[in-house]
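Quick note —
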Amino acid sequence: MYAGHHTYLYAFNSFLPQPTFSAVVKRGDNGLSDAEKQQMLDRHNLRRSLVSPSAALMTRMMWDDELAASSQAWADSCNMGHSNTGGKYGENLFGSSYPPGPYKAVDAWDEEKQWYTLSSNTCNPPPGKSCGHYTQVVWAASTKLGCGMKKCTSWYYVVCRYSPA
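Predicted structure written out below.
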């Protein structure tokens, strides 16, 4: 039914269309509007607030324009692979053949929590899956977030960076 649609979490993942970044679709340009930035930040903070048992040291992340600019620059490269950050910050990548909604990337990363055990800080995913995207979203020490989005030739690319890593 949706054979032409693909979602990538650094690899192929899902084939169901999701709500779109409406402003990007209407504008036809790249990057995130102020409203979309706020939605990405709010969704990250929501997912962080749902960590159970609640993380005593969990802070609400704030939007960081410097991280957003570097995320946008990497998204603009259309290189679906992690950048060489030198450990300066954490990084999550997401790709889709259709315009992803502001929540789609964060929700896809959050799906990895099913393989993560908080009490032992262990990850037991099936082959080809990981917990790294999820643990980056809920990393208690991270206080800053910046994301970028680019429409590449035939797909959309979302990059989020986190500090401290």
